[in-house]
Fold each of these.
Amino acid sequence: MKPILEAPFLVEMIRTTTNMYNHGWDERNGGNISLLLDGKEVAQYLDVRHVIRTIPTGFTAPELDGRYFLVTGTGKYFKNVEVAPDVNLGIVRLADSGRQADLLWGFSDGGQFTSEFPAHMMSHVARLSVDPANRVVMHCHPANLLAMTYVHDLDERAFTRTLWQMCTECIVVFPEGVNVLPWMLCGTNEIGEATAEKMKTARLVVWAQHGIYGAGKDLDETFGLIETAEKAAEIYLKIAHLPLLNTISDDAMHQLEKRFGIKARAGYLD
Ligand code: 13P
Ligand code: ZN
């Protein structure tokens, strides 16, 4: 059995949570990540027949039965993940149609997975249905995107177009745009279901007055997706109160589509 702390998925998770904390996106216990693992890879590091304890999930997701996830703990601080990964992270395998999570490693102080587990697991189901390569769901509280939800129209087309107009490469990084949910109570199955529905058409879902969800094939790509949207929101907040003299026109966006071989969300460009 190889040492679990040397597993590439764990090393990468520690790097990512630390980096997100350093970006100021995850104050206190803010934010959570789930990473879909390959069962065969997990078995190189853990005796997967040994279940430490079983945790009820409070939802059903038969599609995820037998799937392994590395996930951040509820109430845990991203800044502490690197110093105590086994306390702040856990590896679970879903069972009983997703109703229960078998803990195989971590949460060693008796803790459990993030309170946003429903939104994560339901989003994995949604993303896997449109892209079988999807492995990551990431949630955080980046200040500029969050601030933007107080002063910008929450219409998804309008919100997306503003972000696309803030940096040339935004449309290249998230051509499908950004979906937006109005304020909803977090940590519930309801916000989980609403997020998953939005995840069917975009990898970024803004939670108004709360934060953002990103999804992608790996931690780097998902981090980069949120990073790009957050940078655009930062530029928006720098200029929103100033007279707008220039912008990236729809004609320029169409040139970007051709140059980078991407297709903007239907109906979002004139
Ligand atoms: P957890 O500590 O349960 O992960 O919650 C943090 C959060 O960001 C809730 O939306
Ligand atoms: Zn949150």
Amino acid sequence: MGAPEGQEARRIDGKAIAKRVREEVRERVAALAKRGIQPGLATVLVGDDPASAIYVRNKEKACREVGMESIGVKLPGSTTQAELLAVVDDLNRRADVHGILVQLPLPVDLDSNVVIERISPAKDVDGLHPVSQGRLLAGAPGLRPCTPLGVMRLLDEVGVDPRGRRAVVVGRSLLVGKPVALLLLERHATVTICHTRTSDLAAEVGSADIVIAAAGKPGAVRGEWIRAGATVIDVGTNRTEAGLVGDVEYEAAARRAAHISPVPGGVGPMTIAMLLSNTADAATPHG
Ligand code: NAP
């Protein structure tokens, strides 16, 4: 399964795979339309952080491109917690809204945990509500976080079955590290979660058939640590003077890995695609 001698790893084309996912979602949206359902995603943007505004705009555009309704709610930075919760309550009640996404980070005076907990778990397309997290932990059906879902889809697309493989996840956040570790476990990988207190990261990474890097530190995963023939998924998105880079030393890792996802163009495009997929799931009647 390793990259043959002298040959670089197969670069995982997240952009092309995300396009395929969006195409699948578009077909699902068309099928739902025949049943009289138009999936709707509400995005809530509080304040005027330029990066958040761009993220929300991209999500809204992606939504419309697959035929979903995009309901954009823009609130001033002075919005109080009570006002924001009232907006979430209203979206929870609306029948045309199947998914609710509150763009993070929120202005400092607002408590994002309280706001996320207010979202109906049935509409929690970001998969960050404690009920969604509990369902993931329990292996029960529910909405899963988008970036971890994107990672799993990349593995599937390159034909890497986690079953019985050693997977090492670098990072233990609620957003990426922990949920991706649980999804790998659910698919029968033997999973190790590493973090800043891990005593020998090189040895842990070196033992892995699958490496998921989600540390948010350029070069946190050295290329020379990668076991020959491993699959490397780089979630890291770090803005540096040299541009956007991941957590993995790409060139050196690509000489050893069988498959590796680049930054940009790897996991990044998958996140919005999986958000759309989650919204289609949330809009699909069950039972
Ligand atoms: P986070 O909340 O800052 O968590 C980072 C985790 O990595 C922590 O658990 C930390 O350990 C660990 N870590 C940091 N430096 C490390 C090191 N040198 N060695 C080992 N472990 C280390 O970040 P996050 O929200 O999970 O995001 C991680 C990265 O993914 C960021 O670059 C973020 O921008 C990116 N991201 C990308 C997408 C996408 O769509 N592509 C989506 C979400 C996040 P401790 O717990 O011990 O502090």
Amino acid sequence: MKISLGADHGGFQLKEFLKRRLSEEGHDILDRGTFDPSPVDYPDIAFRVAQDVFQGSTGILVCGTGIGMCNAASRMEGMIAALCTNEYMARMARLHNDANVLCLGARVIGDELALSVTRVFLETPSLNDEKYVRRREKVARGCQ
Ligand code: RB5
């Protein structure tokens, strides 16, 4: 799968871990930074990943809590971002919400749990039941 991966300084180490492990598992990783632990603004990284997701990649964004990245990604056209701290949330984010950007908090969960959550997110299809589609469309319209 083509994955666009980005992190701020708070998520840098987890991004490097995920890049290595997901590459070993055969995924095609676009690394959109940050490339060292110096402080950066998470919206700048979220913007880069959003360009790839708009072209069809799945996005993974990591910051300290995952909250800033999730807020940033959710403001951009076509992005359905989900902050997940466990596998159940990752599964539901795909099945019910059709999320295309997984947000992780590197200061909240450990590396191996983050990888497990990511695997579930990548493997789970979206359910296209009428009620889920209707709700997603309302969200896409700004809940109007
Ligand atoms: C950076 O210290 C931290 O604020 C950032 O990584 C993120 O958690 C913001 O939501």
Amino acid sequence: MLVLVINCGSSSVKYDLIETSDNSDVCKGLIERIGAVTSIVKHEPAGQKATKDSKNIANHVEALKEIMNYLMNPENRIIESPSDIKAVGHRVVHGGEMFKDSVQIDEKVLEAIEQAIDLAPLHNPPNLRGIQAAMEHLPNVPHVAVFDTAFHHSLPPEAYLYGIPNRFYRRYKIRRYGFHGTSHYYVSRQYYKLTDKPVEQTKVISCHLGNGASVTAINGGKSVDTSMGFTPLSGLVMGTRCGDIDPSIMFYLVEKEELPLNNLHALLNRHSGLLGLSGYAADMRDLITEAQNGDRRCQQAIDVFCYRIKQFIGSYTAVMNGCDAILFTAGIGENAPLIRKKAVSELSYLGIELDDARNEAVTRGKIEKISTDASRTDIYVIPTNEELVIAIDTAKIAQAASQSPWI
Ligand code: ADP
């Protein structure tokens, strides 16, 4: 089944056309700076050179129209007509407590995603705009929502409750939700294919290290704890997000700097993390280069980033009473041997032993084992593929819908 996967940010739309009969990528692309004077469209049909154009794209509806035009461009036709696309899968960041699984989108689901805006004010509104725009352009196919939070529905109360009065959980659903669920799910499933151990007995720690970053403890195939929380701001230090901090720092800052609340929000989400620590960059490649040139703050930012990962590895090994495998994925996890090495250094007490040569020799885009053969815990680099998870879930739900006796 040909599935279009849509991932909308506030000023961007990522798209991916996937044939689910063989899980092949037919075409992908990215529209950035929607609403700015010039938007950028990167379009990449499989096996061909990517094109990059500047356009004026005012909103998400226009962006979707542009995507359809690119896919049907007579000079390089990917599809003959919109009806070639049989279903659309949407990444939705926050499903609240409502959605344990992916669902076909109808009025009720749209309403529920809207209700979750309160919980994810930065993410759910653009996700909704993307859904509405795609429904306008492809009205006759099933649209499916795949939630970042769904995989973490298995968290037990002791992992998802915060130490605040219980009525706030009951009244406002303040709890840990966790994010990057599709990625943690995908890499853990890739690992299960490599090991003989039954899934029910397998304990995995998955480290998704991109601009956003999170660690998840997966016991018996289920997420049992995860570093992001009520929002994607907590846990690891990230590109521009602070990760875990003592909440009192916020009161202190508000007082000392006379910060209005929305500035505090921006400070912790957009000006903190690696960027804030280094005072130089959020991008790990830049930090590594500058640290190698002797910049002390860039080095410190890297040190804090890795230390935090190590803390979570230790903590989740305790939570699961063991760990069979540590998995690294996403931009940093897949491409930065230095970070992987620092994150798992001196963990021999836990039976975790990195093979330096294997770690350095990882081929981009490949699944590679980077632990020594003697290590009690496997360490793997596993490239993530969130779009594929979304496409497969979407195809399954669309197929089931087409076989329903009610249709
Ligand atoms: P996003 O969360 O935006 O999807 P990605 O998964 O693309 O993020 O990861 C982006 C991060 O990966 C950036 O910090 C980038 O510097 C880092 N990265 C990508 N390639 C490398 C590399 N070769 N070495 C170190 N870091 C890298």
